[in-house]
Amino acid sequence: MPALSRRRALALTGGALLAALPFSVSATLPANKRAVPSHGFNLPGWFEREGGTAPAPAVLEKLRQTGFETIRLPVNGDLVADGNRAALRAIQRGVAELVGLGFAVLVDMHPSGDLRAAFERDPTAAARQVVQAWTALRVVIADLPEDSVYPELLNEPPMERSDWLALRDELAGTVRAKCPLHTLVWGPARFQGIWEIGDTPPLADDRQIAAIHYYAPMAFTHQCETWDRSPLARLANLPFPATKDSPPVRALVSKLQAAGDEEAASLLEQELSSPWTEARIASDFAGLGRWSAAQHCPVMLNEFGVLNFCVDADSRARWVRAVRRVAEANQIGWAHWELDQGFGFIASRQSAEGFDRSMIAALLGGDGED
Fold first, then answer.
1. What is the C-alpha separation between 366 and 127, in angstroms, rounded?
2. Domains of the chain
3. Per residue in 305-344, pLDDT tens?
4. Side-chain half-sphere of 238: how many Cα atoms within 13 Å?
5. Where are the alpha helices (DSSP H) in the chain?
6. First-to-final CA distance of the chain
7. Which residues of the chain are modeled with pLDDT < 70?
């Protein structure tokens, strides 16, 4: 018999371990063969809390038929750090369903709730909790096909860079011990921003993808946001592309200054110190492409999007199309944030109606724009 590699032997062992759970997944599920996952979207709200909402099967089937190939699936470590078998089985079933439909799946450790608060109180203790969560979750990943399922170590690591690099290496070792053939996904601290990757070294691993997020300029992508007291909440109806002299911009600056809101007015003027154009986006991604080539590490854009609360639909679609085209021009895979909430492009994950055709065209091409 031919000798087994260490990785293949460990992979077979990982599958045996998962057999102890009451639900098992065949290792022959269809695999996505793309080197870097792309043409995707994020699907929060399913495994970030107990009682999350799964998409209707008809919705998933329609999304796959439309041309989407990848789903980034946020998972909250709070649910699995204590080895919650019911939560692990649910995640296993959910990922297996997505893979069975032909999707590549990024299983994204996405802190929220108690785990997010723990990082603010005691980063060291929170890091231990993330290690515990991956110690449980890696057994699920091990029995899922390595060509279709990608463990993402930690979303937007809320730590100092040096602390994150140490934890990143530990998490990689933790996952790799049971998942020798899966490709690991990681991003830079603290915000996974495109500007944070330049001085971040890759893992010492031959199966990895570096992942970044892109929401620039936030005065445009996050205008009218509602979840904190940021001055972004007081910006509205801004177009793309734009310069500081664009009439809607000048009108909003004047309105904010007349109301005494210098904070919001200054933010807008600062963000428009250079024009908002596709050329600016291309410049940002050219730097990412250079990092990828220099480090011999593939990269992915696994969050980008525009909040739909008060932006005009054409500007929103233009920005999404520009970012997607620039990413593809630099051989960068992508997953849009997100499916059906404030940044989404369908009305509800429970209905195959209400798909935003202009946004889908911006993401996948079409309508004569590509």
1. 44
2. 29-222+282-363 (3.20.20.80)
3. 999 999 999 999 999 999 999 999 999 999 999 999 999 9
4. 32
5. 6-18, 57-66, 85-100, 113-121, 123-142, 161-176, 218-221, 247-258, 262-271, 278-295, 313-329, 357-364
6. 51
7. 1-34, 367-370
Contact 293, 197 (CB under 8 A): no
Letter for the amino acid at 365? G
Tokens read off for 244: 């500081």
- Whether 156 and 187 have beta carbons less than 8 Å apart is answered as yes
CB pairs under 8 A, 24+ apart, for 236-242?
236/310, 237/310, 237/311, 237/312, 238/268, 238/311, 238/315, 239/312, 239/315, 240/276, 240/315, 240/316, 240/318, 240/319, 240/322, 241/275, 241/276, 241/277, 241/278, 241/318, 242/272, 242/275, 242/276
Query: Structure tokens of 127?
Result: 């890091």
Which amino acid does the sequence have at 33?
K
Lookup: tokens for 36: 């870097």
Residue 322 phi/psi, 5-degree rounding, is: -60, -45
Do residues 139 and 174 touch, judged by C-beta distance below 8 A? Answer: no
> Under 8 Å CB-to-CB from 282, ≥6 apart: which residues?
326, 329
Going by C-beta distance under 8 Å and a sequence separation of 6 or more, which residues neighbour residue 133? 77, 80, 81, 109, 115
7 touches 180 (CB < 8 A): yes
pLDDT tens-digit series, residues 135-154: 999 999 999 999 999 999 99
State which amino acid sits at residue 98: L
- CA 259 from chain center: how many Å? 37
